[in-house]
Structures are given as structure tokens and as C-alpha cells.
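To start, one record:
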Amino acid sequence: MPTEEVHDSVSAEDDVKKAPDVPFLLEERVKEKVPWKEVLKKKVGKKCSCSSARVKALLIDSIPIVKWLPKYQFKDWIIGDAMSGLIVGILLVPQSIAYSLLAEQDPIYGLYTSFFASIIYTLLGTSRHISVGIFGVLCLLVGQVVDRELTLAGYPSDANQTTFGNVDNSTGPICDRSCYAIMVAATLTFTAGIYQVLMGLLQVGFVSVYLSDSLLSGFATGASLTILTSQIKYLLGLHLPRVQGWGSLIKTWISVFKNLGHINVCDLITSVLCLLVLVPTKELNDRFKAKLKAPIPFELFVVIAATLASHFGQFEETYGSNVAGNIPTGFMPPQLPNWSLIPNIAVDAFSIAIVGFAITVSLSEMFAKKHGYTVDPNQEMYAIGFCNIIPSFFRCFTTSAALTKTLVKESTGCQTQISGLVTALVLLLVLLVIAPLFYSLQKCVLAVIIVVNLRGALRKFGDIPQMWRVNRVDAIIWLITMATSALVNTELGLLVGVLVSAFCVLGRTQSAQVHQLGQAGDRELFEDLASYKGLQSHAGVAVFRYEAPIYYANQALFKKSLYRSVGLDPLKEKARRKKLDKQKNQKQDGEDQKQEMHVSTNVYLLQLNSLHTLVIDCSPVLFLDTAGVNALKEVCKGYKELGVNVLLARCNTSVIDSLRRGGYYDPKKGIIDIQFHTLSDAISYAQSLKSQNGDCDTVV
């Protein structure tokens, strides 16, 4: 009887030893499944509910000034806001007139645009610091569309303001070139604003995250080259038509070189003198901005001096210089957009809407982070959208935030958007009283102002070596976006930049490799054996990590990389075995063939005897799609047929759900639903499996 008890005790101990280790398990929460109809009903009810509290909250969210104006600290903030608003307003006067030239508009419309944008953003914006108004890249895009539509309508590009085209204008009498140009720009602005408001309603403000800093910087630099090229004819006093289509930059330079014999000497001398004044003075402003309470408005001084010189020197009459011309005072009556133009400019308006929103959100988030507050991207979409929709009825063109003026605004003590109202008052004074005094201002002076303000974007070329050293992928995105925007087409440059960025992200998942891991002592620390010294591997167990999601685009690469790292491809191995079996059954004699079969079989057995379990660390695998699940099924099945167990460790809940829904777990096939939350648990479980080469169940 004692002998039987001892025998039973030994048998029990053997059973315990043979039983695999049970990994530490976490109890999963049972997620309550709510029918989609109830979810939809709840959301619709929340959005459509009508109560006084709901109306008040909606009003505060839609018009942010209602929230922050009652909290305005008048004594502490008013001086800074007034000073920054005054300085920005003074800078905006010459820049608004200059950028009207870039947008193919009369100077008065640039002043209108800056005036209305400053007021509307003050009411609707969530950023305290950005300056919304004319932006060079958008002016370029607007000018390209306007010039194209003028040509299609029959207006010669070098026509004067009294030339009429074959235009059927249902909103009023047939208008001249200037009238039709602002009609096109206003309709384009209205359509872009509608796009932006719709994107705000659809809560797609998150799209700004897909426009990286390198993409936007490359796009702005490429557009700056196009802007510079478009102003060369004004700097030289040449009367050249604006080049349309792809490769406009190269075509423009060719046209300029062909017409060098027609340079207006007066405009050339004026341009050189203005450049000699503005470039060094701008550099002085930048160098001593920390010591200066406000930047010195050298642009305004140059404009005043050039206007006086042109007026008293009679440059227009004597030398044929091209001047700004009559700038009326006051405001024109509002007019509706030309609805018949919308089909022609709908695509252009979408790209302009995206660029305007991306620039505005990028700047607002940058300054909000710097000063410790938050902005709402969707509300910014509404704000910039209405900054385009409402002014479009008052003969304005597209606006967005502008970096240069925002930096000036911040550096001169801006605290809130009250500074925007002060800027609007300065522009209102110019519109009502001062504007006609700029009649004799040469257009070459305006071109100089535009070119000088491109310095920041053009300096990016000097940062290319640094960008290349920091991140080559970002540098490549910058170079491709810049080159496409400048040499091919501005709008296409933005699209190409987005696609290149997407392919770079996709390429990183494509280039991910499987790494074999080793353990650092007894710690729960596993790293790449090829990257670190002193790591330990475990006999019979190989641990691998794939540092990317597994989905349809990279599942084949995952399997290929895994098989190469393991050194055993199940498909090739099974094919080789079938070939050997076939040769064996053919009863062929020969010592060489027998020796080859013997060596190959020994290699195969050696591999299997040294490896019985494969552990895959799934912590970097963010998600799986159907193709990814099928790839893991194929890996598990292939190795199981060769007697190698496959364990998946450290899977997140999303991956586990995908595996369950994809039918990966199948107890009938030996794949049991067991999670390993650490690699050590998976290795301990693998080492506790006594049977090898397919005798044990394969678990997950």
C-alpha cells in the first residue's frame, strides 16, 4: 500500500511537470454593445435639442468674443492691444496695396480685404495673436485663377481698365476688366469660404494634421519662387502677359529674357533704390527686434517717398511708368457672386480653402502653444470661412493668417483680438481719407515690397543641409513639394506634397523588418540582438518583433522578413521535402543522390531540433486587417506543420479583437485563445512544453 502511494505521488509530480505554465491573465471587461440606432438617436437628440442652456452654449461656441470680452482686463491689456493693432495697421496699408497687384486686383480691393478680415476674425476666431488678412501664397493662387478667367472671357492681359470683354453678366451691366477681375476673385473667395464652413460643420478640422510642417514649408517656398518670378516684370517695367499653365515659372523667365530690350529705366532705377533701402532696414528690424518696442515701418516710409517722387517728377507722363492709378474712397455697394463662374473655379476654390485653413490653424496652434492656451480647429475653420464668405459680397478676395504680420503683432504686445479692431480702424481711416493720395505710386515699388517680404521663405534654402541631417524623409518631402510648386504648378505642388507624405508614411511600414530579440538578464527587457550587446537568447525559443501594423500592403513583406529572420520558410521547406520524397520513390541508384538527401535531411532535422517555439512580440502592431490576420494564420499553420509552435505576446485589445473576429483562434486546429501579457510569460510557457516538432498545441 505505501508503494502504491509513492507511485501515485510520483505520477502526480510528473503530471505537474508536464503541464505547461499558466500565464498571468487579466480579466477582460465585458463591453456593452449598444445598437447603432440608439447611438444615432442619442447623438441626433443631443445636437438637435433646443433649450436656453443649449442656445447659450451654441452662441458662446460660435462667437468666441462673447466669452472672452466680458473678462477683458482693460487696464493691463489695452495698451498692448492698441500698440500692436496700430503697428500692424500701418504695415498693412502698403502690403494690402502691393498684394492686390499679385492677385490681379486694383489696390482698393486689397484694403477692403484686410479691413473686413480683421473685424470678422476678431468676432469668430479663437486665437489671441494671429493676424488674418492678405497672404502672399493665396494672392498668387487667386491671381492665377483671375488671369485665366479674364483670358477666357476675352479680356487681353495687358488691357487697361476700360477694355470690355464678351461677358454676359446677369448681375448688372457689362463691366470692364477691373470689374470682372474682382467678380471672379469674389466668387472664388465665396466658394472657398463655403468649403471651409462645410468642413467645419463636418468636424474635419483634424485634416490639418496631415499637412506636415515640411510640406507647408516646401509649398510656401515653392510658391514664393513663383511670386518672385511674377513680380520681375514690374521690377523691370515690362508689359508682359501673365503665363498660365504648367511650367509658368520657366516660361516667364524665358519671356523676361526675350524682352530685356524693353526695360523701363525709370522703373528699374526706382526698384533698385527701394531694394537698397528696404533690404538692409528690414534686416535691422529683425536684428534689433528684441530692443525695439515696435518695428519701424520702413515700407510705409518708402511708399510715401516714392509716391511723392513719382507725383512731382511726373514719372507716368514723362517716363511711362506704370502707377497704381485712381484709388476711390469709401465703400462700394455689396454685390452677389457670379453664380455662373462657380463650376469653372470650384476645384481651384477647394485647394485655396485647404491652404488657407492649414496656414491659419498651423499659426494659431503654434502661438497658442507658445502662450499657454488652446484653440479649436473646427471653430478656426468657421472663422476663416466666414472671413471669406461675408467679405466676398463687398468685393474682397481670399484671406488667411499671415506669419509676418502675426509675428509683428505678438512682438508689439498683443494680448487679444481687440488689436484686430484697432487695425481695422487704421484701414478705415485710409479707405475714407488717405487712399486717393497713392495715385502716383509706381507698381514697381509695390513689387519691391512683395519681393522683400519673401526673404523668410527664400531663406529656407539655406536650411536644406540642416534638414537633411535631422530627417532625410522630411527633407525629401520639402524638396519635392517645393520643386513641384515652383517648376510645375502651385496647386499641384500641394497635392504632390500630400501624396509624397502619405507614401513616405506608407513606405515606413513597408520597410519595417522583423528583429530577433534577446533578454537583458532577468529583467523584462527584450531588445534587438543585432543592436545591443550582452543580450541572452533562450534555448529552443526564438523571440521576434515586427515594428509596424500588419495589413494588406505589407503582410507579404512581414512573412518574408519573418521567414528570413527565422531561417526557415515553411512553404519552401515543404516543397523541398516533397521533392526529396519524390526522388526517393523513383528508386534511383547513385551515391551522390543518397548523400545529398542525407545531408539535406540532416540540416532540416538540425533546424527543427534547435527550434521548437516561435514567439512574436506584437506590441508595435497597432492594428490588423483581414489580410494581416490571414498572414498570421498562414505563419502559424506553416510552422505547426513543421513542429514549431507560434505564440503571440503583448497584443493590444484591438489586435486581439481582430484575431477573434478573423477566426484566428481555433481549438480544433490547436490554436487556443490564451494571451501573454509579457514576453517572459510566453517564453516560460514555451519552455514548459515538453513535446516538440508538432506534438504540442499551438497557442496564442
